[in-house]
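Project outcomes to date are best conveyed with an example. Our students and postdoctoral researchers have been running inverse folding experiments weekly, and each run begins with a structure described purely in C-alpha cells. The record below, which covers 253 residues, was selected by the lab manager from last quarter's runs and is presented without edits.
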C-alpha cells in the first residue's frame, strides 16, 4: 500500500484539528551512528520538512512542534549555540517554502532570551506569512507549558488589580484567552518520538484532552508514513471528554 493510498483512507472529518509533536531523539540517533549530537539536530530538520508537508497536504489545521523548551538552556553551551545557529539558518531557508504553500508560521514562547539577530529573523518570518490562510505552524521555542499558564495568570491578575475582574469571577475561559495559542483549537493529538512516555511540560493546558501517541522512532526517522500511522491510531480512538463510552456511542446514533 502506497503512502498516498494510506492517506486517502483516513476520513478527513475524523482527523485531528491540532497536532502537537515533541521531537525527541536527535542526539541519541546521532550517537548511535558515532556522530556528534548536533548531527542529529541537523538530520531532524528533514523530518520537520516531511511532517509539515504531509500535515498540510492532509488538511491539518494546526501543527505545533516543540523545538526548544525553556529547560533546554541547561544543555551544554556549545550544543545550545549550535541549535540557535541552526534555528536561524532553517528559518531563513524554509520560510519562503512555507509562504509558497500558504502556511502561517508562528514562533511561540519567550523569545526575549534569544539573540537580537534571531529575534529579527523570527519577526521577518512571521510577518512574511502572517496573512496566509493554510495550516498554522507553531514552532515552540523557549516554551514551557507552566510558563504559558503563568503568563496567562499574570494577565488575569492585572485585570483584578485594575478592577476589571474580581477573584471570584475568574473562570477557565479567563485563563484560556490569555494563553499563547488562545485563538487556535486545543490539541487533539500529541505525538512523542524516541520511546519516552512523558509530555515534558509541553502545552499542559491545551493538551488536557489530547490523545497521547508514543513511538520508538527517533525524530530523524519520523516521516510521512510515521505521521499517517499516528493518525490511523488516532481515528480509531474513542474520545470521551469525561463521558462514558455508552454516552459517546449514543451521540453517534
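After processing, the design step wrote out the following sequence:
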Amino acid at each position: 500500500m502506497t503512502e498516498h493510498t494510506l492517506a486517502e483512507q483516513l476520513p478527513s472529518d475524523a482527523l485531528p484539528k491540532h497536532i502537537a509533536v515533541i521531537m525527541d531523539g536527535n542526539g541519541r540517533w546521532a550517537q548511535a551512528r558515532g556522530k556528534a549530537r548536533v548531527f542529529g539536530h541537523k538530520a531532524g530538520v528533514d523530518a520537520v520538512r516531511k511532517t509539515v508537508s504531509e500535515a498540510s497536504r492532509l488538511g491539518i489545521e494546526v501543527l505545533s512542534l516543540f523545538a526548544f523548551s525553556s529547560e533546554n538552556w541547561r544543555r551544554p553551551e556549545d550544543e545550545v549555540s549550535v541549535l540557535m545557529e541552526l534555528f536561524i539558518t532553517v528559518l531563513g531557508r524554509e520560510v519562503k517554502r512555507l509562504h509558497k504553500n500558504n502556511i502561517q508560521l508562528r514562533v511561540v514562547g519567550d523569545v526575549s532570551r534569544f539573540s537580537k539577530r534571531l529575534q529579527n529573523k523570527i519577526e521577518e518570518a512571521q510577518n512574511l506569512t502572517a496573512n496566509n490562510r493554510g495550516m498554522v505552524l507553531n514552532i515552540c521555542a523557549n516554551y514551557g507549558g507552566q510558563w504559558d499558564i503563568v503568563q496567562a495568570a499574570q494577565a488575569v491578575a492585572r485585570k483584578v488589580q485594575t478592577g476589571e475582574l474580581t477573584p471570584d469571577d475568574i473562570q477557565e475561559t479567563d485563563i484560556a484567552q490569555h494563553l499563547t495559542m488562545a485563538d487556535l483549537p486545543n490539541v487533539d493529538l500529541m505525538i512523542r518520538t524516541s520511546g519516552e512516555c512523558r509530555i515534558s511540560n509541553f502545552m499542559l493546558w491545551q493538551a488536557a484532552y489530547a490523545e497521547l501517541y508514543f513511538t520508538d522512532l527517533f525524530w530523524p526517522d519520523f516521516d510521512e508514513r510515521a505521521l499517517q500511522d499516528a493518525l490511523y491510531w488516532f481515528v480509531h480512538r474513542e474520545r470521551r471528554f469525561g463521558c462514558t463510552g455508552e454516552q459517546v456511542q449514543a451521540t453517534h446514533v
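The chain is about 45% helix and 15% strand. The mean pLDDT is 91. The training component of this project remains on track.
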